């Protein structure tokens, strides 16, 4: 079976967890689909050897295809039904999988599976800057959903969003939850500049952008920072700078406890696991998530978790975390204070975190995704 996979989500500059998903799922699909041949499609005006980043060199059942067309041109080609991928790379597909919503022009006989990670751009357009709103206008997600043969989503919440917002047939949408990546058995030694962390800290890890509610988190920490139980506790915020993050930096600057709030920016994979391992508590007060891998990663590290109860997050953390209203700053603050203060509660949450995280695995994600690809290819 010839399976096409669009790996253009690895393009630098595309935000969110799409790149991480592709880097994780594609090698697993190749491993479990040994009887199939995988054709990886990538386009860019300037060539980048992205296939190497997937560590698939030497795999007999993988062929990488590169075309030098700008993706904006391919967006237009899809709109006008031109520049078919099959023609561009001289290959036919039994099925084509897009692990993102980047438009692609395919022949009618090629079944097309599209993964919608979330529809935050529909639910909260005000959280996106002009550049990203324009990008979503060009991509036309609703059009992608209606043209797809089959749709995958990581959560029931996102499936329901697609049904209610785009009026998609529920029978053509399958939910395949994601998982946390396992900590590497061998990690590189951290640089001295990476290990200067406070002894006690509350951690949050995400791309810095309005939807993640980091402003609310800083305000919540500021409310309780001077209490007796919190005086030696810091707030550490890690993650790359996304967009419209000016309010986050101002809130940090203006906080009376700014010296105990660290904004690290993007961190290495090794540093990320170090942060999880030593955190007293992980807080994820996001307004909306299509799935929410960071709280699951924290749980996998045995860290107590406070999460907002919005969108898909209750599906991810279950009853193993404390759920809060992301709009209620005093509630977030009180929950953080209680977990820091109560060592028995922390121990209970640590045990629950580990048990919850073990319910999710990337092997299961890959096997279920491959099964869906095979069913669609066979016309089921």
Would you mind describing this structure in some detail?
The chain starts with a strand and ends with a helix. A seven-stranded parallel sheet has the order 3-2-1-4-5-6-7, sandwiched between helices. The chain has a six-stranded parallel sheet with strand order 10-9-8-11-12-13, sandwiched between helices. It has 380 residues and is of the alpha/beta class. The longest helix is centred in the C-terminal third of the chain and has 16 residues. The model has no long low-confidence stretch (mean pLDDT 91). It has two domains: 195 residues, 3-Layer(aba) Sandwich (Rossmann fold); 166 residues, Glycogen Phosphorylase B (Rossmann fold), CATH 3.40.50.2000.
Keywords:
single chain, about 375 residues, alpha/beta, Rossmann fold, 2 domains, seven-stranded parallel beta sheet, six-stranded parallel beta sheet, about 40% helix, about 15% strand
Order of helices and strands: EHEEHHEEHHHEHEEHEHEHEHEHEHHH
CATH homologous superfamily title of the largest domain: Glycogen Phosphorylase B
SS-derived structural category: alpha/beta
End-to-end separation in angstroms reads 15 Å
Number of beta-strand segments: 13
Give the strand line-up of the largest sheet: 3-2-1-4-5-6-7
Q: Mean pLDDT, as a whole number? A: 91
Rg, rounded, reads 22 Å
Overall 3D form: elongated
CATH-defined fold name of the largest domain: Rossmann fold
CATH architecture field of the largest domain:
3-Layer(aba) Sandwich
Organism: Candidatus Spechtbacteria bacterium SB0662_bin_43
GO molecular function: glycosyltransferase activity
Domain Glycosyltransferase subfamily 4-like N-terminal: 15-177
Keywords: Transferase
């Amino acid at each position: 079976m010839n399976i096409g996979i669009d790996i253009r989500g690895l393009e630098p500059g595309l935000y969110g967890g799409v790149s991480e998903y592709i880097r994780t799922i594609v090698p697993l699909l190749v491993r479990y689909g040994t009887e199939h041949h995988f054709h990886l499609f990538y386009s860019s005006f300037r060539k980048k050897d992205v296939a190497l980043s997937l560590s698939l060199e030497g795999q007999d059942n993988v062929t990488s295809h590169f075309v030098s067309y700008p993706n904006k041109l391919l967006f237009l080609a899809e709109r006008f039904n031109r520049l078919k991928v099959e023609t561009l790379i001289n290959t036919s597909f039994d099925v084509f999988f897009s692990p993102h919503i980047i438009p692609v022009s395919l022949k009618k006989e090629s079944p097309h599976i599209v993964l919608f990670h979330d529809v935050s751009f529909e639910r909260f357009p005000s959280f996106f800057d002009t550049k990203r709103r324009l990008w979503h206008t060009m991509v036309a997600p609703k059009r992608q959903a209606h043209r797809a043969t089959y749709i995958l989503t990581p959560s029931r919440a996102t499936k329901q969003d697609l049904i209610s917002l785009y009026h998609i047939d529920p029978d053509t949408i399958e939910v395949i939850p994601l998982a946390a990546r396992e900590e590497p058995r061998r990690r590189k030694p951290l640089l001295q500049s990476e290990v200067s962390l406070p002894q006690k800290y509350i951690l949050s890890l995400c791309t810095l952008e309005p939807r993640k509610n980091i402003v609310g988190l800083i305000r919540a920490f500021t409310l309780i920072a001077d209490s007796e139980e919190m005086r030696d506790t810091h707030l550490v915020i890690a993650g790359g700078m996304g967009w419209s993050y000016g309010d986050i930096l101002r809130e940090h600057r203006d906080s009376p406890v700014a010296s105990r709030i660290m904004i690290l920016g993007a961190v290495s994979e090794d540093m990320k696991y170090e942060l999880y391992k030593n955190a007293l508590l992980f807080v994820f007060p996001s307004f909306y998530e299509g799935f929410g891998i960071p709280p699951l990663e924290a749980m996998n590290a045995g860290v107590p978790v406070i999460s907002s109860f919005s969108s898909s997050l209750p599906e991810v953390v279950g009853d193993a975390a404390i759920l809060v209203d992301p709009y209620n700053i005093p509630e977030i603050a009180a929950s953080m204070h209680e977990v820091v203060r109560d060592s028995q509660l922390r121990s209970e949450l640590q045990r629950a975190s580990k048990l919850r995280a073990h319910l999710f695995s990337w092997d299961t994600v890959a096997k279920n995704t491959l099964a869906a690809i095979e069913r669609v290819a066979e016309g089921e």
